[in-house]
Amino acid sequence: MIYLDHSATSPVNPEVLKAMEPFFSQEFGNASTFYSLGRTARQAMEAARENVASLIGASPQEIIFTSGGTESDNMAIKGTAYKWKNKGKHIITSAIEHPAVEETCRYLEKQGFEVTYLPVYEEGIVRIEDVLAAIREDTILITIMHANNEIGTIQPIAEIGEIARKKGIIFHSDAVQTVGKIPVDVKKLNVDLLSISAHKLYGPKGIGALYVKKGVFLEPLIHGGGHERALRPGTENVPGIVGLGKACEIALKNLKKDQEYVTRLRNQLIAGILENLEESYLNGDPDKRLPNNAHLRFNGIEGESLVLHLDAKGIAASTGSACSSKKLEPSHVLMALGLEKVEAHGSLRLSLGTENTPEDIEYTIKSIKEAVTTLRNLSPLWNQ
Ligand SMILES: *Cc1c(COP(=O)(O)O)cnc(C)c1O
Fold this sequence. Notes:
Keywords: 2Fe-2S, Cytoplasm, Iron, Iron-sulfur, Metal-binding, Pyridoxal phosphate, Transferase. It catalyses: (sulfur carrier)-H + L-cysteine = (sulfur carrier)-SH + L-alanine. It holds the Pfam family Aminotran_5. Homodimer. Forms a heterotetramer with IscU, interacts with other sulfur acceptors. The protein is of the alpha/beta class. It folds into 2 domains: 2-6 and 255-383, Aspartate Aminotransferase, domain 1; 14-251, 3-Layer(aba) Sandwich (Aspartate Aminotransferase, domain 2), CATH 3.40.640. The chain has helices at 14-20, 36-56, 69-84, 99-110, 128-134, 157-167, 238-274, 303-312, 332-336, 341-345, 358-378, 380-383; strands at 2-3, 63-66, 90-94, 114-118, 139-143, 170-174, 193-197, 208-212, 280-282, 293-298, 315-316, 347-351. The longest helix has 37 residues, at 238-274. The model has no long low-confidence stretch (mean pLDDT 96). Pyridoxal-5'-phosphate is lined by residues 68-70, 73, 98, 100, 145, 149, 174, 176-177, 197, 199-200, 208.
């Protein structure tokens, strides 16, 4: 199988798995106990915290382990909203956030918070002038993702962060799609809070982290034994944490090389399709996008049928986010680009990984051409 859905999840790197294994068996200690078994777990956990911090230019004390990107987003957004609700109740976000951010904002709206959803236009990118215009006296939080999980567009996080800092507004970014794929430095990006998930960077599912800048305070969402600076109590998921740490260590070591390699494959794929298949288009900005993302649109077909045709040819791809692909509504991200519903439905997301080869990409181009041609021949939309 050729796996081209790395934005949904990625395979666990064998080195990551190897690093995790002892913590399921002989090193099973509770990291909060004081005898040697517990100390070994604690040390492994703290080494992992250093690896996560190094990858994003943070210090280890600023890393809180969570169950993944969804929890990190909830912790950042609700934690800030509840902490500062007496100061103001206005939040700024974008129209293309992952459901972990979008639905959290919608939930807060039901509790009396007001949320501004910034437009992203045809290129899929938030504009600085819109951020400036949206800021109010009572704005307590800006939350804008680093790169979009569907169309892969990269947002001007450093610039938005600079504005937020000057105005004294807390700034959170969901960086689940960028950490390990492009350089992410919390200081250069001017963020106060940043979400990470292990399974998007060749680590295990169910583990992630939230960067919480020193001096930034959150209201805890769960209460218990005081672990993770009382922000995330509960016995630590040591194997998962070790896996996340290893994935970050490997990502840092290979970042430049992987980024270049995957970008080359991605460009080969986009050119191979756009040059050889009529009425095919790239969604979102062609340059300000993740190195591994090709989000394509084909007139006269349905993305779901194309995904099934590709599956039959041994290619795993997606129409958009794994989270919304069960609903038949067009994705809110594609609608935010100003696409018509039929155009949105004709879209395909290919997200590449380091294990893909140029031969995989050639085969994929050929398979997409065949599948799109077959589907168009059957389509009343195409043949009218
Ligand atoms: C995958 C993803 C999440 C959710 O992360 P989980 O670890 O699966 O909860 C959040 N935000 C973005 C941008 C994602 O791509």
